[in-house]
């Protein structure tokens, strides 16, 4: 298995008494990958699985050459996972403190920490909100804060589950451009926005907890749209 991509071999995930993912075999080696499918098809579960947040029940799995169940701490250092519910990811009382919290493991000098935080906040349009209580932000502002906290660490792989769900058109464009134009990271993007999916280099379609097709986004999107018409 390659040490750079995402590889699954006959992976299953059972949560409670439900087989949420079944027999998923996949090789995702493109820099940007879209994950699409109907509500309840297993996309978020797949995102949580490759983000090391839930364990597989069966099969083999490798993310950037790492088995998440064996080297979870290393995986957490190298990847960032961003969800559509930003509340779960906001921890510190103010915006600036929350962004800085993401860098706690790096033990930076105060001046460097301040600069990294300021640069990241500027990139996500949060500069004017630095001292605001994080939990008083709007849904969209919280989403930007969660993204900022994810990116400030410089992850090798970003797993983003509907990252533009709460954003207005301008911020959605800003975030999408950031996800696609910053080539320093790989991206796995779970999305119902087929326009965003089309911007990826590879796409994977889930249905009923199974991976049904993987390949060029245009072909995978056409397959999905044909299924939706049935
Ligand atoms: N903890 C759990 N226990 C039992 N079933 C679960 C659990 N988490 C998810 N499921 C079920 O697994 C299925 C897939 O859920 P998942 O959230 O992965 O879908 P999704 O494709 O991301 O959906 P959506 O587009 O609506 O966000 C759903 O039927 C869901 O009810």
Automatic annotation (TrEMBL):
Record-linked InterPro entries: AAA+_ATPase, ABC_transporter-like_ATP-bd, ABC_transporter-like_CS, ABC_transpr_CbiO/EcfA_su, ECF_ABC_transporter_ATP-bd, P-loop_NTPase
CDD domains listed in its UniProt record: ABC_cobalt_CbiO_domain1
Domain ABC transporter: 6-230
Annotated GO MF terms: ATP binding
Keywords: ATP-binding, Nucleotide-binding, Transport
Keyword field contains Signal: no
Domain of life: Bacteria
Family: Belongs to the ABC transporter superfamily.
Protein name: ABC transporter ATP-binding protein
Organism of origin: Arthrobacter ginkgonis
């Amino acid at each position: 298995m390659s040490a750079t991509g995402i590889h699954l071999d006959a992976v299953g995930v059972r949560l409670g008494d439900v087989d949420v993912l079944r027999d998923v075999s996949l090789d995702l080696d493109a820099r940007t990958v879209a994950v699409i499918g109907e509500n309840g098809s297993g996309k978020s579960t797949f995102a949580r699985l490759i983000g090391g947040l839930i364990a597989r029940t069966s099969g083999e799995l490798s993310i950037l050459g790492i088995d998440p169940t064996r080297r979870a701490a290393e995986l957490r250092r190298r990847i960032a996972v961003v969800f559509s519910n930003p509340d779960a990811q906001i921890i510190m009382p103010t915006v600036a403190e929350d962004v800085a919290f993401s860098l706690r493991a790096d033990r930076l000098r105060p001046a460097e920490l301040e600069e990294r935080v300021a640069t990241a906040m500027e990139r996500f349009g949060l500069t004017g909100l630095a001292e605001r209580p994080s939990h008083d932000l709007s849904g969209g502002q919280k989403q930007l804060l969660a993204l900022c906290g994810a990116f400030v660490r410089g992850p090798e792989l970003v797993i983003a589950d509907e990252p533009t769900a709460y954003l207005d058109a301008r911020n959605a464009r800003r975030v999408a451009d950031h996800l696609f134009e910053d080539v320093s990271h790989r991206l796995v993007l779970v999305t119902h926005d087929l326009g965003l999916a089309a911007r990826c280099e590879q796409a994977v379609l889930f249905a009923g907890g199974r991976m049904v097709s993987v390949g060029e986004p245009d072909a995978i999107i056409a397959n999905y749209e044909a299924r939706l018409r049935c």
